[in-house]
Amino acid sequence: MTDLKEAASILEQGGVVGMPTETVYGLAARIDREPGIRRIFSVKERPFFDPLIVHVGSVEQARALVSDWPAEAEVLAKRFWPGPLTLVLPKNDMVSPLITSGLPTVGLRCPDHPVALALIREAGAPLAAPSANRFGRTSPTRAEHVESEFEGRVKVLDGGPCDIGIESTIVAVEPGALSLLRPGHLSEERLSEALAEAGLRSEWREPKDKRSAPGQMKHHYMPDKPLILLAAPMEPAVLLREVRGRLAELPSEVEGVRIRRPSEVNLLHEMSLPAEPAQAARELYQGLRTAASAPGDALVLVWPFDRREGDWRGLWDRLRKAASLRIE
Ligand code: TXA
Ligand code: MG
Question: What's the whole-number mean pLDDT along residues 249-259?
Fold first, then answer.
C-alpha cells in the first residue's frame, strides 16, 4: 500500500498502519483515536505498561502536548528534529494515559522520513507509534518485515529500507538535567555539544526510576533463533562443544516473551556485521532476520570488546538485549 489518503482514512476510522521512519518502521495510530491506540497494543501483543512514542510533524505540534518545554527541549528539538531523538517531557491532557502507560510524561519525536511526515500531515494529528514488531522481537527496517510480522493483517506504507536501522535515542528532559533512557544513533556527546553551543550547562543523571523506562528491560529485539555473542572467534568444533555444554543456559522465555530453544545444537549459523557503526546499525535487524531464516539451530556473532562504547553504544545495547547467551 502506498496511498497516503487510504492510510489517513484507516487512521481516521481508528485503525493502525505501518509507517516508515528513518530509524525503524512504526505501527501508527492517531493519538485522538482510542480504538487505534488499543489496537496497537493488541496487534503487537504488547503489555499496557510499555508506553508509546508520539510522532509529531513540527516543534509546535510537540509543544501542544506537553505541560513544560524547558530550554533544553527547545535546543535539542531545533537542532536534531526531524531526526532519531525522542524527548521525554511532562505531558498534558491532550495525551491519553493509555499512550503513556499512566506515566506523567510523554515521549515525543519528529521522524526524518518524508512518508512519515506526509502521513502525520495528512492525518492532521500526532501519531503514536511503537516499532512495528511483536513485543520483544526484532524491529522491522523494511515494509516486508512489517507485513510478515503481522501476517498481512496490517497495511503498510512502503518507504524503502530504513536509513539508520536502530531505534531513536531516548532522553528524559528536565530543566538543567538529562537522562539517557535508551542509547541510539545520536550519542550523549552530540547532545551535550549542542546544549553547550547554546550556552546550556545541563548535567547527565541516572534515570530517576528505572521502572519509568520500560525500554530498559533486559531482553528485547530477539530473533526467532537464539543469538550467541562471542567476544573472540573460536574454532568451530570447540565452539559447538561449548554451546552444547551451555544449552541449558539458553532461556525459553524472557520477560514474558517465548524464545524458541533448540533441543539440540548441530549447526551454528555464523553471521557478521560491517566494521563501521552506522553501517552495522543499518544492517543489524535485516541481518538478524536473514540469519534466523538460514539453516542452523542458533546464530553466532563475534563481537569484540572494543565495539561496545562510543559510536557503538546504541548497537551494542540492541545486540546485548537480542542475545540469549554470551561467551566471553
Ligand atoms: O525510533 C523509534 O523510536 C521507533 C520509531 C517507530 O519511531 N519507535 C520505537 O518505539 O522504538 P518502541 O515502542 O519500540 O520503544 C519506545 C520506548 C518504550 O519501550 C519506552 O521505553 C520508551 O520508549 N518510552 C516511551 N514513552 C516513555 C515515557 N513517557 N517515559 C519513559 N520511556 C518512554
Ligand atoms: Mg520496539
Answer: 79
Hunting for cell 538478524 — which residue is that? 288
Residue 187 CA, distance from chain mean position: 15
Q: How far is the CA of 117 from the centre of ligand 2 (A)?
A: 20
Ligand 1 centroid – CA 238 distance (Å): 40
- From 112, 167, 171, 179, mutation site for ligand 1 pocket: most ligand atoms within 8 A of C-beta: 167
Report d(CA 142, CA 182) in Å as an integer. 22
CA distance 230 to 246: 13
Quick: pLDDT tens for 117-140.
Answer: 999 999 999 999 999 999 989 999
Query: What's this model's pTM, rounded to 2 decimal places?
Result: 0.95
Q: Which residues contact 83 (CB under 8 A, 6 or more apart)?
A: 22, 110, 112, 186
Report H helices in the chain.
4-12, 34-44, 59-63, 71-80, 97-100, 114-123, 143-149, 188-197, 236-245, 277-293, 313-322
DSSP helix/strand/coil, 51: coil
Query: Tens digit of pLDDT for each residue in 5-60?
Result: 999 999 999 999 999 999 999 999 999 999 999 999 999 998 888 999 999 999 99
